[in-house]
Amino acid sequence: MTRHVKTPVFLFITVFLSAIMLSGCIIHVGASTAKADYQIGDDYSTVNKSLTIDEGKTVGDVSAVNGSLTVKDNVSAEDISGVNGSVSIGKNVFAESATTVNGRLRAQSNFVVAENVSSVNGGIFLNPNSTVGGKLETVNGQIDLDGVHVKKDIVSVSGNIHLSGNTHVEGNIVYQWNKGNSNYNNRLPLLKISESVKLDGNIILERPVDLVLKDESLNSKVIRNY
After folding, report:
1. Which among 205, 157, 204 is positioned nearest to 181, based on CA atoms?
2. Rounded distance, CA 165 to CA 172, Å?
3. Is the dihedral of CA 66, 76, 122, 33 positive or negative?
4. What are phi and psi of 53, to 5 degrees?
5. Global pTM?
């Protein structure tokens, strides 16, 4: 197993911000504070303003930089992404992927993501009957799942993870080693798993973590690589 923090979210920041600066597009869909400035196909983006995607829309990529992003109920999208702003997702929303950098991502019930959900410093909060088809990753942000099906790994470096309800993780829960910070005498992240949670894989720790495992049988799945 590699001992380096994975960097897809950081690559996302560079590419995303470059695209915004080059295009100069500021898009609003259903926002009450501003109307659309420019539109390219079904992709919508905004800088320094909030963006709202109205209920029932079918869109492409939606993104906001330095502003909040709201996706209302029954929306289908490709990538949902935010930088320096909260991302709020309604009920029965579908997306190919979802990413946040410094803002919190919170989704209501029946949020289905075909691929990955990722964050750098923002928390990820998913509610019952949601599904993540790929990995769920964060660096420093909290992960809170209640009744969520994750088909691959949950990965973090230093964020708390709380799994509850009938959450089902088919892959592993991994705490990666941060090469740039080998001093683990600071606050340890907390991994808390309720008794009702199903974990098919293992709990792989490349750094110290506080564990609260309500199902004692999960202790046999803990692998410490530090």
Report:
1. 157
2. 18
3. positive
4. -105, 120
5. 0.81
Structure letter (DSSP) for residue 23: H
Q: DSSP letter at 218?
A: G
Compute CA 182 distance to the chain's CA centroid, rounded to the nearest angstrom.
Answer: 25
Within 13 Å of residue 40, how many CA atoms lie on the same side as its CB?
A: 12
Distance CA 104, CA 82 (A): 9
Token pair for 30: 């259903």
The model's confidence at residue 184, banded by pLDDT at 50, 70 and 90, is: low
* 211, two tokens: 């564990």
Q: How far apart are CA 136 and CA 153, in angstroms?
A: 6
CA distance 32 to 188: 43
Integer CA distances (angstroms), 7 to 11, 53, 78, 118, in order: 6, 28, 21, 11
Tokens of residue 134, six digits: 């790929």
* Residue 63: closest CA among 79, 76, 84: 79
Q: Quick check: 180 and 160 in contact, CB under 8 A?
A: no
User: Cα Rg for the chain, rounded, in angstroms?
Assistant: 18
In this structure, of 18-22, 53-57, 215-219, the range with the lowest mean pLDDT score is 18-22
How many CB atoms within 10 Å of residue 58?
11
Q: Apex CA 145: angle with CA 77 and CA 217, to 5°?
A: 140
